[in-house]
Amino acid sequence: MAHSVVIIGSGFGGIGMAIRLRRAGIRDVVILEKAAGLGGTWRDNTYPGAACDIPSHLYSFSFERKADWSRRFPPQPEILEYLRHCARKHGVLEKIRFGTEVTEARFDEDAALWRISTTSGELAARVLVPACGQLNRPALPPIEGRASFAGPSFHSARWDHGIDLRGRRVAVVGTGASAIQIVPEIARDAAEVRLFQRTAPYVIDKPDRPYRGWEKAVLAHVPGVYELSRARVYAAYESRALGFVKFPRLLALTERRFKKALRDGVGDPVLRDALIPRHPMGCKRILLSSDYYPTLARPDVDLVTDPITAVTPSGIRTAEREYGVDVIVYATGFRATEFLSPMKIVGRGGRELNEAWRGGAQAHLGITVSGFPNLFLLYGPYTNLGHNSIIYMLESQFRYVLGCVEALRRAGLGWIDVRPDAQEAFTREMRDRLRSTVWNAGCRSWYMTADGEVVSNWPGFTFAYRRATRRPDPRHFRARPAAAR
């Protein structure tokens, strides 16, 4: 017996998609989760200081508001509990099969079914929805001798909470979004922290604070206040898209905030100079922190800008010297552009998705891939953001996927497959538009493939994406009736 829909992953994408399907009356839904608990990136990233850089009222589902967030920017434990609450409340929790990793999904064209192989057995589905996200596979740097280190070492997304950092010498490799949260937290306990920086990021102040009791009461009980707060945050963040995709000069105000944060936080001119990025603002992700720069100015925190040449059993070596350390934390990001790896996805005619994406991931609207019928990606290529909430993008995708599922049922179709010309036209448009964005301004980032192609980001307003995905266009698809053999 084939299921109506199988979803892979139980983060915001998987949980939200299952809720929307259930509310539409589609209850034969299974979520496959390789871990022992739900939550996706918010389950995996439990490092000290882990929090979101999008305000809480916007980093949540529009259909499940939460008026009692503790802070303006939600911390990791609270986000994870919010997702658990959503799954419980909407009857999705019992749909999840934990400890079930998908190894292969193969489309059976005759039966119009996805045959799915997992570590817990086989199953089939009419519709397959991978909701694996872009930030789920940690990237460890190819540094010589990395495995030779005698002390504890781990990636920030696999934090070892059994290691006590008090009184120890800790090295943090990387200066991305995780590192700027980790360093201020661990510096409180460690004997010394050495931060190994390859590229200085732009860091601006984070206007975070706890919500007061009366504010939570107003948000919960006064009609329209919560919605107004959400709309205000959305408008403020959405306006930044112009600076990223069209008019980089509009980022000048943000650059002034960066310069002020650096000037106020770091008094030493030599250190301050080392923390000035050499790439245009916005080319890499702009980071939020009010305590990162003051922490780097402490005498027990050392910024190392010399490139790492090797890891040794007792520390980290650069061309200049070797630094003895007790613990190494790799805050080196994720393999964001590999999307569904290492799963093997096989579509029509035995074509593998990895082969189809050899020149870079492609998907019409970031959702459908030609040659892979009834496969709908969430948070696929060209749907990441540099300026607003990914939850808004996911909700646009939920509606589009639901429209496809309902079209299959309503028209009695066995499968639908996006036309190659529709996918190619969309990909050409994305590449043309991305060339003029700040993400192509000369730096390397996790938005890019190894060949330097930006394949992660949406080059425009999120409301434009919502309009583009408001309903599936039948002209973009070819279909086969369910009865045909």
Could you characterize the architecture of this molecule?
A hairpin with a 3-residue loop joins strand 14 (315-318) and strand 15. The mean pLDDT is 94. It is built from 14 helices and 19 strands. The strands form five sheets. A seven-stranded mixed β-sheet has the order 3-2-1-6-5-4-17, covered by helices on one side. It folds into two domains: 3-136 and 335-481, FAD/NAD(P)-binding domain; 146-330, FAD/NAD(P)-binding domain. The protein is α/β, with parallel strands linked by helices. The chain has helices at 12-23, 41-44, 76-89, 177-186, 213-221, 225-238, 241-245, 252-265, 269-274, 292-296, 353-356, 390-410, 420-434, 462-468; strands spanning 3-8, 29-32, 96-97, 102-108, 113-118, 121-130, 153-155, 169-173, 192-196, 203-204, 287-288, 301-304, 308-312, 315-318, 322-324, 327-330, 344-346, 413-418, 477-481. It comes from Actinomadura soli.
List the main descriptive attributes of the protein structure presented here:
alpha/beta; FAD-bind_Monooxygenase_sf; globular; 14 helices; 485 residues; NAD(P)/FAD-dependent oxidoreductase; FAD/NAD(P)-binding domain; 2 domains; five-stranded parallel beta sheet; single chain
CATH class descriptor of the largest domain: Alpha Beta
What's the total count of β strands? 19
> Can you name the CATH architecture of the largest domain?
3-Layer(bba) Sandwich
Helix/strand/pairing category: alpha/beta
Q: What general outline do the C-alpha atoms trace?
A: globular
CATH topology of the largest domain: FAD/NAD(P)-binding domain
Contiguous uncertain segments of 5+ residues: none
N- to C-terminal distance: 19 Å
Major beta-sheet overview:
7 strands, mixed
Number of domains: 2
What proportion of the residues is helical, as a percent range? 25-40%
The fraction of residues in strands falls at: 15-25%
Write out the CATH superfamily name of the largest domain: FAD/NAD(P)-binding domain
Query: What is the count of helical runs?
Result: 14
What topology, given as strand order, has the largest sheet? 3-2-1-6-5-4-17
Whole-number mean pLDDT: 94
Please give the radius of gyration in angstroms: 23 Å
